């Protein structure tokens, strides 16, 4: 009887260890299936621009998606919207008409699998800035890459004035992107005390956010 109990105990330990190992390595049942399915779609549709590793190393122009700052600041719904709606004028096609809802969710699951943990950001609440002051800071610190009026520059900086960017980005997300940058891109951190060339205060960044938000066209 004791022998059977001991064997059962060892089996239980092995099962627990296996579960921990599988979880640590991304094997999570249905989610693992979604990741694998999403990888196939990603390689067919996205890798040419964003690269096999999602670091913007594709043959065509595409930003880095494999960024801990980006992934920690964007929800799964945000990622679905970015992919589905795209920014055609910025060379990002709208994949909503091309991919099913399941395929979109699978691609997001694959991209999300790159995330190593949840980053914490020190963001003002509320974000209150002055658009006129923000425009001056933008022209001094941002225009070189993002262009006049947020028009963007190929292989330099994304289109900040694009309606889909402004529609699907909160002020908090724009603040985080400006302050903390995005790894594997030209967008280095801007917040004072971080390792970027720009050393902007929290208020400076809030002013820049106010200016970027002012580029939003009324429908």
UniProtKB/TrEMBL annotation:
GO terms for molecular function: electron transfer activity; heme binding; iron ion binding. This is Cytochrome c. The keyword Metal-binding applies. Residues 33-115, 129-216 form the Cytochrome c domain. Keywords: Electron transport, Heme, Iron, Metal-binding, Transport. InterPro entries: Cyt_c-like_dom, Cyt_c-like_dom_sf, Cyt_C_IC, Cytochrome_c_Oxidase_Subunit. It holds the Pfam family Cytochrome_CBB3.
